[in-house]
Amino acid sequence: MKLPIVAYGDPILRKKAEEIDEDYPNLKGLINDMFETMYAARGVGLAAPQVGLPIRLFVIDASPFAEDDEDEAGDPTLKDFKKVLINPIIIEEKGEKWGFNEGCLSIPDINEEVLRPSNVVINYLDENFEEHEVELTGLAARVVQHEYDHIEGKLFVDKLSPLKKAMLKGKLDTISKGMVQVGYKMKFPNLKKKR
To answer: Where would you tag: which of 24, 108, 110, 138 has the fewest CB atoms within 10 A of its CB?
Structure first.
C-alpha cells in the first residue's frame, strides 16, 4: 500500500524518533509499504517520520545510483544496496566532506548541494532484528546519513548556508501549503483537507 509522504513543515519531521522492538505492530507490512511508497515516488530512501511515524526505521535502495558509484575495480558498489535499518546508531562519520546534489521526497522540487563526510560507520538491526555494523563510503554513506538525519529530526536544508536557506524560504512555505505538483500522495501540514 502506498502511504502519503509528509511534507516539509509537519512537526513530525522535526521530532527525534523513538526506538522500536520486535513487537512493533505489523512491522513487516509497514516495511513493505515503505518500499512500495519509496519506489512509487522514485526515491532511494524513506524514513518512517516521512510517512508520519516517529520511529527509528528507514529503508533504502540505492541501486538507481549504481552507475554513479564504482569501486577501484570499476564495479558498481550500489547495485544490490537495498537495506532496512531499525534503531540505527551512527558510530562514526569520517573522511573528507564532499558535495552532492541532494533532494528529499518531503521537500519536492528542491535540490541543493550538501556537504557530508565520505565515510560512515553505522550499527543497526535488519528486518529480522539481526545486528549489523558496517562502514559505508561514497553515495552509500550519503544515502544512509540523509535518512539517519530524518530519524534525528533533521532535514538536508538544515545543512545549507543561512543565505541559501533564506533564498529557499518562499519555496519551502509553498510546499508546506500544498502548492506543489508531485506524482505521489502527500500530506501537507498547512492544508485543512488531506490530499
So the answer is: 24
**Beta strand 186-187 pairing with 131-137:** unpaired
Cβ atoms of 180 and 41 within 8 Å: the answer is no
Digit-coded pLDDT (tens) for 127-170: 999 999 999 998 899 999 999 999 999 999 999 999 999 999 99
- The three three-digit cell numbers of residue 78, written as one number: 550500489
Strands 107-125 and 131-137: antiparallel
By CB neighbour count within 10 A (0-12 exposed, 13-18 middle, 19+ buried), where does 108 fall? buried
The three three-digit cell numbers of residue 4, written as one number: 502519503
| From 19, 113, 127, 147, active-site residue | 147
For 92, other C-beta atoms within 10 Å of its C-beta total 11
Reply yes or no on whether 135 is catalytic.
no
